[in-house]
């Protein structure tokens, strides 16, 4: 995005005021070993499956791969619409990959997401796991490099707890986060591919909800049309593969299952890894209606903030992208720690350009592993507060984006 970002440093800014925070964060950084170990375990399972022919089963590898591999096979079967019937989906999966799946392991994604999974259909679980890991991990550094990120920033972002967690559990978070950053870089540079990159995020729509706001604020009508056309083409392509009945199944049984998943009493196990305003409100005792109202208010405020940031001519593109990445997580009620990969990358990018690493940078980078631990111990999921901190720091970054942050933000952190 910015040629000035080619040089930088991650040197910690340690002084008398920051010594204690750095000491605490240094101890807390040991928690990074958990996602790192999970990633190494994944690589070991893949090696054992591919080289030694061992079976890949849920008892050996807790992973969302066991939702995506069955989804690919059911999508090309005689009854693809059964994908969104939880009992039939779990029954098919248990019969083909073995028992041990948790009850929440269902398929909630909209039909176009199946296009990313279709390469798994001809493959056995072991080969499929290798293919899926390559599909969700390999494009990430190339997308970030296309966005202009320096290699040290790419390494810091993709080796962070958010990315490692996403890869180790076979989720889209790292890929969708990097794709969103590439789309924001293209939008800042007014490149023609901005709309297409945003359109690709229709495969995981909650990861790109602010994409249309960005394009509208920029007045990029061609990009908006391109993104809409690509999203429609992806929807048409999966309809040709599965038949139109899959849409009725998703809008009916699929959406009902996803809604039940969302509003389950806190703490369902997966909610401890959540990062949405909705789940924060639920963890603090709010009912579904109040939590939904809080989420709606956060989404409207984030969209308005994003609109203002992108309406300003010639701001700092890196700070504005960092702000937008944070705001996107405040819009959706359905996001997890692996969806913070973009936050990790942009936090590292701002720190690299600043030439020093501050305690808040380390806190944001570590949050995807610290947050679930805190939620488990304190029965409170407060990740949106950390994400808001990232947004505020981006708004006050050196060079600025020309949009006022709330007055409660007192001083550099």
Characterise the protein shown here.
- With 413 residues, the protein is mostly helical.
- The chain is 63% helix and 0% strand.
- It is built from 20 helices and no strands.
- Helix 2 crosses helix 6, helix 10 crosses helix 17 and helix 11 (194-200) runs parallel beside helix 13 (221-242).
- The longest helix is centred in the last third of the chain and has 24 residues, at 288-311.
- The chain is globular.
Count of separate DSSP helical elements: 20
- Written as H for each helix and E for each strand, in order along the chain, the element string is HHHHHHHHHHHHHHHHHHHH
Average residue-wise pLDDT: 91
Distance between the termini: 24 Å
Give the helix proportion (percent range): 55-70%
The low-confidence runs, each spanning 5 or more residues with pLDDT under 50, are 402-413
Secondary-structure content class? mainly alpha
**3D shape:** globular
Taking Cα atoms only, what radius of gyration do you get, to the nearest Å? 21 Å
Label this structure with key terms.
20 helices; mainly alpha
Describe the structure concisely for a colleague:
With 413 residues, the chain is an all-alpha fold. Helix content is 63%, strand content 0%. α7 (139-146) packs across α8 (151-158), α10 (173-188) runs antiparallel to α11 (194-200) and α16 (288-311) packs antiparallel against α17 (317-331).
């Amino acid at each position: 995005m910015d040629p000035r970002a080619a040089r930088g440093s991650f040197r910690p800014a340690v002084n008398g005021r920051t010594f204690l925070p750095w000491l605490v964060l240094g101890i807390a950084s040991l928690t990074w070993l958990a996602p790192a170990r999970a990633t190494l375990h994944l690589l070991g399972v893949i090696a054992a499956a591919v080289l030694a022919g061992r079976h890949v089963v849920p008892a050996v590898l807790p992973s969302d791969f066991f939702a995506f591999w069955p989804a690919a096979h059911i999508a090309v079967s005689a009854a693809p619409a059964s994908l969104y019937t939880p009992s039939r989906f779990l029954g098919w999966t248990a019969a083909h990959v073995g028992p041990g799946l948790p009850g929440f392991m269902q398929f909630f994604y909209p039909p176009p997401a199946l296009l990313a999974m279709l390469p798994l259909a001809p493959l056995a679980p072991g080969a499929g796991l290798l293919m899926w890991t390559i599909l969700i991990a390999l494009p990430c550094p190339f997308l970030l490099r296309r966005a202009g990120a320096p290699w040290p920033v790419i390494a810091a972002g993709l080796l962070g707890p958010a990315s490692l967690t996403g890869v180790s559990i076979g989720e889209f978070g790292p890929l969708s986060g990097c794709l969103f950053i590439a789309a924001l870089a293209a939008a800042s540079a007014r490149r023609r591919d901005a709309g297409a990159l945003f359109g690709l995020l229709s495969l995981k729509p909650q990861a790109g909800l602010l994409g249309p706001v960005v394009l509208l604020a920029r007045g990029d009508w061609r990009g908006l049309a391109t993104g809409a056309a690509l999203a429609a083409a992806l929807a048409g392509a999966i309809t040709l593969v599965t038949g139109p009945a899959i849409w009725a199944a998703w809008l009916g049984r699929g959406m009902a299952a996803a809604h039940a998943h969302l509003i389950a009493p806190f703490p369902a196990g997966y909610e401890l890894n959540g990062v949405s305003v909705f789940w924060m409100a639920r963890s603090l005792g709010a009912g579904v209606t109040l939590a939904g109202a809080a989420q709606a208010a956060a989404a409207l405020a984030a969209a308005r903030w994003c609109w203002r940031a992108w309406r300003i001519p010639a701001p700092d593109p890196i700070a504005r992208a960092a702000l937008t990445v944070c705001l996107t997580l405040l819009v959706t009620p359905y996001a997890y720690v692996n969806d913070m990969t973009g936050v990790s990358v942009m936090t590292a990018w701002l720190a690299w350009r600043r030439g020093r690493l501050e305690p808040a940078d380390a806190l944001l980078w570590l949050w995807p592993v610290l947050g679930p631990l805190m939620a488990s111990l304190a029965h409170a999921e407060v990740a949106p507060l950390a994400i808001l901190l990232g947004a505020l720091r981006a708004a006050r970054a050196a060079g600025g984006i020309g949009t006022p942050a709330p007055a409660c933000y007192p001083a550099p952190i």
